[in-house]
Amino acid sequence: MIDDKSLLQNTVLRCHAHADASEPVLVSNEEHRFLVAEQLRQLEVKPEAMLLEPAARNTAPAVAIGVLQALEVDEDAVVVVLPSDHVIPEEVAFQNALSDAIALASESYLVTFGVTPLHPETGYGYIRAGKALDAPRLLSDCALVDRFVEKPDVDTAERYLAEGDYYWNSGMFVFKAARYLEELEKYRSDIASAARDAFNGRKQDIDFTRVDEAAFRKCPSESIDYAVMEHTEMAAVVPLNAGWSDIGSWDALWQASDRNENGNALVGDVIAENVENSYVRAEHRLVSVVGISDVVVVETADAVLIASQEEAQQVKSIVNNLKSCDRDERISHRKVYRPWGYYEGIDAGENFQVKRITVSPGASLSLQRHAKRAEHWVVVNGVATVTKDEDVFQLKANESTYIPIGCKHRLQNMQAEPLEIIEVQSGSYLGEDDIERFDDVYGRSS
After folding, report:
1. What residues contact residue 233 under an 8 Å CB cut-off, 6+ apart?
2. pTM to 2 decimals?
3. Distance between the two ends of the chain, CA-based, in angstroms?
4. What is the pLDDT, as a whole number, of residue 432?
């Protein structure tokens, strides 16, 4: 987070600011679905659809199912494709560039935004502008794309900066939904076919749309750049000078953050002595750093990362290491979102674990029972409506109840404020799959 909203929330609001914007279509993986839903609920934005990817297949297939959804609403839809991890502080400049992109997309161009480079950056791909496009509606010097180029070394990046006709590749796009599918079919019919099959086999799950898993897994993994933009003859670039930053790495987040007189971005409970040009983030406890410079230190409930600024983009190697060692940290988190709210792991040991559970206003957990664990609930804030077998009663702050093994039970929040409880589980097995559901407002089964 750069301000009081997440990057996803700012992305949604950025699109909503355009006069012709419709409700957004979001494409998310399974793990983040409830987090995405909660962040939109906080904005009071009801999306057109939230599509779930059953597997990671890069941006070309993800965009394909997104535009197929857009075509369900409007056969002439112009689609704006925005990653959720960008920072664009200069709103007016972005909206002006977006107007140019929409104007070009309406003339069947496939448009990307080229960020005017401020320094010889080696972490981004580049776009070389070609023939200028002249139209009375355009506000900036738009052009056809001459070519896309990979991330350069320092010397090449310096040359690109000196020549002046190269832009950073922002990874944002605007085009007619139908035109994208035409070009995808032309250059990568295998991706287009698999995406159509997956979308046609979709099923609704609460507020989410699940595309067909088997069909989507058959889809080749490819970026929109490689699949379409590098091949189409109708690629156009719109210059963007709006303070853009791709927060894809911790050093990029440091660049985008407010920094003190020593060049440090300090977030949370941090004590820094003799520290320079560093990003230090503390989310759950005091973090003290002494006598270092040009580093990234990030403390979360899940893990702690310490890296040099130069190596901060190599976090993927850590993820690959965790994957090769089959460690759960790469996929599981202490804070887990559910359709009714979320829970956080506080402590765990042999035959016990402790969770903090937050239930959203008006939300309800399923009527369920466990075969191998008992639970003790203590209300911290709010009013809990509790079902225990045939009994239904309320608990207020500092009141508690015990749920024995085999007892049918449900937790509800019938109030206008969030409900917070502490749950202590004990038993021979504490996994989330020890749930037998009898009734669930979200349509989930055991």
Report:
1. none
2. 0.77
3. 35
4. 86
